[in-house]
Amino acid sequence: MTPFVIKIVTALIYLAVIFYLGYKGWKETKSASDYMLAGRQMNPFVMAMSYGATFISTSAIIGFGGAAAMFGFPLLWLTFLNIFVGIFIAMAFLGKRTRRMGVALDAHTFPELLGLRYQSRFIQGFSGLVIFLFIPVYAAAVLIGISRMLEVSLGIPYDVALIGFTVILAIYVITGGLKAVMYTDAFQGSVMFVMMIILVAFAYYSLGGFTEAHQQLTDMAPLMPEKLVKGGMKGWTQGAVAGSPLWLTIYTTIVYGVGIGVLAQPQLSVRFMTVASDRELNRGVLYGGVFILFMTGVAFVVGALSNVVFYKALGKISIAVAEGNSDKIIPEYITQMMPEWFGVLFLLAMFAAAMSTLSSQFHVGGTSLGRDFYERGLGKKAANEVMLNQAGIGVTILITLIWGKYLPESIIAPATAFFFGLCAAAFLPAYVLGLYWKGMTKIGAVVSMAGGFAASMFYLLFVHTKESQAIGLCKSMFGVDSLAMLAEKGSAGFMLQWVDPNIIALPVSFILAVVASLLTRKMDDEHLNLCWRHL
């Protein structure tokens, strides 16, 4: 049996398990609550693994692993925030209140929780529309990651991989709902966990151990590409010069933007409402923390160390091997440097990472369009609620496919950071203050969400060069790629073009929420008592 046939057979066995779990989810789905919230009776291990597998995707492993090959160990700060903020703060402080308030208000989605908390159809509809419009960009980043992996590993043309993988996902997400998504997530998360342990063990073994590997990477600092050195990079273990453009990109966009943005991710927050009690969330902190450590921690360490491995074997650093496309670094590393048997298994792990995240993104995009925007925001009555959400998922998948076809190279990490930042600016103040502060008003929430969204979009279109240059609106109106370029070179204003939009937009959103709430009429005590009934 040839290696190619082994890969195909292994992939088919894997897909058989996925479709069985999808079928199991479909069989157990009897109502809209089952379809959107898995019946609120999910096992804690399944919930935690589903949360983690949804959180960590090919975007984190291939996209950010490739970014670690460029920027080195400073990305490990993101792993710290992923565990402390994304798991501990999210589950222990926000998760319990989200679950309890969700039960009290009978909320089925993240936008619906916000809409019911503030007694506002506009808030639910606006939240659903923002999620539906922009989650395909994030989903496309994940889709690109697995399609690049299939292109490099199996030689499947990129466009064929893009469409074929999407069709497989569409079948079980549309039919099985959230139960099918979470069952498959838990299995896929387990596969990912085992593969990442093998990956990091092999990297350190092949380089002579922990200390030796890190010393070799440190000694390679003179090989850092000239373009990165000009941007402020000193080395893969040394990091970047404080305040330099790349230092700002690493710490404000990758570490802060993604690390904080996770708290307002609708596809993650909805999982808090799928368990029966706080006990399941407490147990989820342990499962989730260990899982995230071995996912992002391993991806970032191996991504950085791939420079040593490639240089010893081929005389080139990682980005040179990948011909300038950082999204190809991890796939090339697996294909060229790891044993062939591992390539087969790692491909399954990437299948798992992509499918677990994409299925959740498609599901939340579809329910945001169907239930939140169309049914509740516009006040349209659907004859069949499940079919309405299935149609929404279908539209979300189609838009994702289009983005996946046309987004440029090396886009995975920036696209992920974009969606995380946008969600934080638009939703985080209304979400957090809505859970903890009875003085937070409907007007405060509306002003905060609209203001945070507007501030974030303005910054993306006119200040943050990475996006404003690609979109071109700023250039067409003002003749420069970023308004920050009009400031004196090297000044604080000039450096704003590398500062993440959320550094500005999130504080603006919080300030608007507090000030507007203090100046407007308080919400009805009876309604607040209902919201706080289980808190």
The top-level CATH class is Mainly Alpha
Distance between the termini: 60 Å
Q: Output the CATH topology.
A: Sodium/glucose cotransporter
Side-by-side strand order of the widest sheet: 1-2
Shape: globular
Rg, nearest Å: 23 Å
Number of strands: 2
Task: Tell me the name of the CATH homologous superfamily.
Answer: Sodium/glucose cotransporter
Structural class of the helix and strand makeup? mainly alpha
Quote the average pLDDT.
Answer: 85
Q: Can you tell me the CATH architecture?
A: Up-down Bundle
Structural domains: how many: 1
- Characterize the biggest β-sheet: 2 strands, antiparallel
Q: Give the topology string: H per helix, E per strand.
A: HHHHHHHHHHEEHHHHHHHHHHHHHH
Number of helices: 24
Which stretches are low in confidence, meaning pLDDT under 50 for 5 or more residues running? Answer: none
Report the portion of residues in β strands: under 5%
The portion of residues assigned to helices is over 70%
Question: In words, what does this structure look like?
Answer:
Keywords: Cell membrane, Ion transport, Membrane, Sodium, Sodium transport, Symport, Transmembrane, Transmembrane helix, Transport. It is found in: Cell membrane. One of its GO terms (molecular function) is proline:sodium symporter activity. Its main location: membrane. Belongs to the sodium:solute symporter (SSF) (TC 2.A.21) family. By secondary structure, this protein is an all-alpha fold. The chain has one domain: Sodium/glucose cotransporter (Up-down Bundle). It is 78% helix and 1% strand. The chain contains 24 helices and two strands. It has helices at residues 3-28, 32-37, 44-55, 58-71, 76-105, 110-117, 121-154, 158-206, 210-219, 226-231, 245-261, 266-269, 278-314, 318-321, 329-337, 340-377, 385-406, 412-436, 442-462, 465-471, 473-478, 492-495, 501-519, 525-531; strands at residues 233-235, 239-240. The protein has a two-stranded antiparallel sheet. A hairpin with a 3-residue loop joins strand 1 and strand 2 (239-240). The longest helix is centred in the middle third of the chain and has 49 residues, at 158-206. The termini are far apart. 57% of the residues are buried. The mean pLDDT is 85.
